[in-house]
Amino acid sequence: MDIQEQKKEIRRKIRTLKKEQSTYDKESASSIIANKVLKLEEVASSRTILLYHSLPDEVLTHYLINYLYSYEGGCKRIVLPIVEGEYLALKEYNPKELECGYRNIMEPSGGKSVDPSEIELAVIPGVAFDSDCNRMGRGKGFYDKLLPYLECPKIGLGYDFQMVEKIPCCQHDIPLDMVITESETYCRLL
User: Per the confidence metrics, is the pTM higher than 0.90?
Assistant: First the structure.
């Protein structure tokens, strides 16, 4: 089985496992994950943070976005990706300027464009991860094209059931620095 077939099989398996999870289980796990993220030194020391506006089957990030954007969360500059053709562009988050974009993902409708070099911490979604902090996305390569331009710590968020023994990787795949699930935090040995 080649790498693409292996990835399709992992995506199929994870999709099935996601359907088996209750909304309550996903919300509970997401809350645990969000609290772990908020305790990270990387969050405290970063002013500009790239997050993603989660889809219903992803670790929920709405709380993280709103908390970090608020005064209580330290008034961080939150950046969200928007899909432009085959690439992700980065825009400043403003809760009053969101619109439904690609695949019904909420995206900034206005806001200042942000260069990847300005990002101090990136929180990245994935379909599956492994303990070496490799990630596998949905297959369109949006984040694969962005990751080489991010010169900051990169953290993946996933549920325990999204952890697999080994992600099949290509030469261009970039591992993350950390993956956080509800029960574990995996750090890549540098």
Answer: yes
